[in-house]
Specification:
The chain is of the alpha/beta class. It has two domains: 163 residues, HUPs (Rossmann fold, 3-Layer(aba) Sandwich); 121 residues, Elongation Factor Tu (Ef-tu), domain 3 (Beta Barrel). 35% of the residues lie in helices and 28% in strands. It is built from 13 helices and 14 strands. Strands 1-4-3-2-5-6 form a six-stranded parallel beta sheet, with helices on both faces. Strands 9-10-13-12-11-14 form a six-stranded antiparallel barrel. A hairpin with a 2-residue loop joins strand 7 and strand 8. Helix 9 runs antiparallel to helix 10. It starts with a strand and ends with a helix.
């Protein structure tokens, strides 16, 4: 897959089957669109093109609200990695700034889809909107496809067990419910985040459960509901099993400090300042406040048993 940052130097293709969208998470529904995109391109001998936007449009259109409320499933690097696995020929990353947000749907079609790419077929997901004030959609495109010189096709809503697959549904499963298995089913892979290991107060080491304190690399990344999770950790080139507590540490800090702490099983190396990737496998329990450190230690032993049972 060739990645193009911006449209300026993209050379129009002889034939292009195109789709566009934010594709946050590259989830099951997205994968169905991309599968159809590839199949359609193979039938008419065209190249596949995916147009995506960065930053997420809401960070430009509603910056204050988005900063507080919007958490993303994938950052740009993660999204690119996922799209590479989908067998797309070209990925065009368009900078979504104020100027771009004012482009009308007709300007987007004429300047980008026709002039810059030479689109011969456009494949879009259900309820896809584009252009200033989201004025463009399937009906508009279908009505004018002869004028534009390319065909338009809409993919119907994809569902799993009668629940619509969407980035919003995945965020809810992770953030509101801590249901990482549902998120995995919708995504087709374990949800993960990356962070840097930073120095903590070493309380975990004193009680026999040393932890890596994780600082998120991206402030907009989605974190799961507070609680204890079975996780895998990619560290020093190897995937290791572990358990993670995300929350306020009510027993040892009286709930003052919100942290992400990972106890990596059977690991004693020094990984301060290193980047690690944490993948969520199963939520073990909610965060609890114990009567003392001894009660906490006893529960941590139970949590480790529970985590290990997940990997059997």
């Amino acid at each position: 897959m060739k990645v193009h940052y911006g449209i300026e130097n993209f050379k129009p293709l002889e034939k292009a089957t195109v789709t566009s969208g934010t594709f946050d998470g590259v989830h099951f529904g997205h994968q169905q669109i991309l599968s159809h995109l590839r199949k359609t391109a193979e039938e008419d001998g065209s190249e596949t093109v995916l147009i995506t936007f960065w930053p997420h449009p809401r960070f430009t259109l509603q910056p204050e609200v988005a900063k507080k409320e919007l958490k993303l499933i994938t950052n740009l690097e993660e999204k690119i990695d996922r799209l590479k696995e989908e067998g797309i020929d070209h990925l065009i990353v368009l900078k979504f700034d104020k100027k771009f947000s004012q482009m009308t749907s007709l300007e987007f079609v004429q300047e980008i889809l026709i002039n810059k790419i030479n689109t011969t077929k456009l494949v879009i997901g259900y309820d896809h909107r584009f252009g200033r004030n989201r004025e463009g959609g399937f009906d508009y495109l279908k009505q004018h496809q002869k004028d534009f010189g390319f065909e338009v096709e809409e993919i119907t809503k994809q569902e799993i067990e009668d629940a619509a697959v969407s980035s919003t549904a995945i965020r809810k499963a992770i953030l509101d419910d801590g249901n990482v298995e549902t998120a995995e089913k919708y995504l087709g892979y374990h949800y993960s985040f990356k962070g840097k290991v930073v120095s903590g107060n070493r309380i975990g080491r004193k009680i026999g459960f040393p932890t890596a304190n994780i600082e998120l690399l991206d402030s907009f990344k989605l974190l799961p509901k507070i609680g204890v999770y079975a996780v895998t950790v990619d560290v020093e080139g190897k995937e290791r099993k572990g358990m993670m507590n995300i929350g306020n540490r009510p027993t040892v800090t009286d709930g003052i400090l919100k942290t992400i702490e990972v106890n990596i099983f059977d690991f004693e190396g020094d990984i301060y300042d290193q980047e690690v990737k944490v993948s969520l496998i199963h939520r073990i329990r909610s965060e609890m406040k114990f009567d003392g450190v001894e009660a906490l230690i006893a529960q941590l032993h139970e949590d480790k048993k529970a985590a290990l049972s997940v990997f059997v």
